[in-house]
Write a structure and sequence with these properties.
53% of the residues lie in helices and 14% in strands. By secondary structure, it is α+β, with helices and mostly antiparallel strands.
Length: 404
Amino acid sequence: MPGPERLDPPRLALANLRAKPYRSAGLALVVALSAFVLFGGSLLSGGVKTGLDSLAERLGADLMVVPRGYADRMQAVLLRGEPSSFYLGADLLERLRSVPGAARLAPQLYLASLDDACCAYPIQIIGYDPETDFVVPPWMTANRKTRPNPDEIVVGSLITSPVGTKSSFFGDLFRVAARLDRTGMGFDTSIFMPIDTARGLLRKGGRSSPLAEVPEASVSSILVSLEPGTTPLKFMGDARRELGREFQFEFVVARDLVTDLANRLELFSIPLILTTIFVWLGAVGILFLFFSVLANERKRELALFRILGAGRSRVNRMILWEALILSGSGAFLGLAAAAVSVLPFQSLILESAGLPYLAPGFAGIAGLALFAALASLAIGPLASLHALLRNGRREIYAGLRSGE
């Protein structure tokens, strides 16, 4: 007669699963799919939510003034850093100062360039005024240089050039003076320099192109921070009434942009959440059927275990261990697959959706992985409850007579 150690529940469970390797592997893959969807989906939706919160908190401006017809291009620059070049009338900045309700105005100038030394693909150059800009400096920590020299640049967090190295634009070398904190927006792949320096590059790069016709004092966008009590609607109405005939411009309202992104996030998240729930419940259902059928097929086997000295609780622990091994191995495979296929490509996966994305840190990723692991690990035990209850009510003699 086998000793107690031969009836050890974990050992028996592992032997039973090894006896049917293909069936066990298939069930583990069902759990793996659930873990993959849970971890990957939570990672993507959580990153977009964090990026949207970051955008709403740090956008800084109430309004953005852009050339008429370029609101979508402005959003592409802001959200994805897509290289663009467009320009407002040269005198619009000064004329906007006369419109009541503007507390601060900050010009920015956009150039599209190719930086062979840095990235070898088109990047967005943004010229900003260090004296008046209130959007870019907040992304720099207190110990970083917020007013670069004319020959210095500030790079986004995803630009690979280390601080202190030099990069070439239109034949001129610039020293990387600082890096921006991660924003989850197009700032991460953009390069910033003083606006006067950017204007010099504009003139230098445009000698034989349409850029040569752009007036020297032109800007691409004007960021507007409103005075308390002034609504965006009132300021836009006053600006259009006073300047609309002379200049071709339109407004991008920061609050509307965030609201639009929130709506797109909802459209993105709801199908993802529903898919996650469906996959998880499907995994529970498949394993539930497996353990129910298995319990019916193994009546004689379980009764023999009882005769050999395995008590009812030990047999139940064996069934529970089978469920835990299947769930545990499946959870590990699913998390590993998500880590390999989702983690390295998070921003690329969501780039086509046009949503800001800020990847969680190590603690956030660990928390999401733990959640997905626990939820996937619970699938097996939950699915085996019915089999455990049936075994608890079955008598030894009835089990031995089954199938006769």
